């Protein structure tokens, strides 16, 4: 999967996950997490639109990819912080504490796997962009 598709998937997963989080965390954690996921997506889409032909275009593309990477690191920290405070999947009546924890752990692992894959894809793209031969 390429870095744009991964960012899109991460944003979708985040929206689905965050709507189940406790409302008391809306302003402190939920909105910020969603904004970071959206920023990752917007930065990689913008970077992907630039095919470097000049040094300025190369620099702009790399800066956008680095911004996406920075947002990705911050995003992962927010997810870790949320997991320490409540079940990521939302609390459901009738589910035992161990079931809640197991479901939350699986969701956390899924999100972190996407983050790790996206990190590798973005870093690979940065390396590729640095190696592209410029016109002229």
In oligomeric terms, what are we looking at?
A: single chain
DSSP strand count: 0
Shape: elongated
Proportion of residues in helical segments = over 70%
Number of helices: 4
Short summary of the structure?
This protein is mostly helical. It has helices at residues 3-18, 26-48, 55-85, 97-131.
List keywords for this structure.
mainly alpha; elongated; 4 helices; 77% helix; 136 residues
Helix-strand blueprint:
Layout: H1 3-18, H2 26-48, H3 55-85, H4 97-131
Helix pairs in contact: 1-2, 1-4, 2-3, 3-4
Description:
This protein is mainly alpha-helical. Helix 2 runs antiparallel to helix 3.
């Amino acid at each position: 999967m390429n870095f744009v598709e991964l960012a899109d998937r991460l944003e979708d997963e985040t929206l689905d996950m965050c709507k189940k989080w406790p409302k008391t965390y809306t302003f402190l954690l939920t909105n910020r997490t969603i904004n970071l996921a959206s920023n990752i997506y917007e930065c990689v889409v913008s970077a992907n639109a630039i095919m470097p032909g000049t040094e300025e275009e190369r620099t702009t593309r790399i800066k956008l990819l680095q911004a996406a990477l920075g947002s990705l690191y911050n995003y992962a920290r927010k997810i870790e912080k949320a997991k320490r405070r409540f079940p990521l999947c939302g609390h459901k009546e009738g589910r035992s504490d161990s079931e809640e924890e197991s479901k939350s752990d699986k969701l956390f692992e899924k999100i972190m796997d996407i983050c790790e894959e996206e990190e590798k894809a973005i870093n690979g793209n940065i390396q590729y962009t640095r190696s592209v031969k410029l016109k002229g």
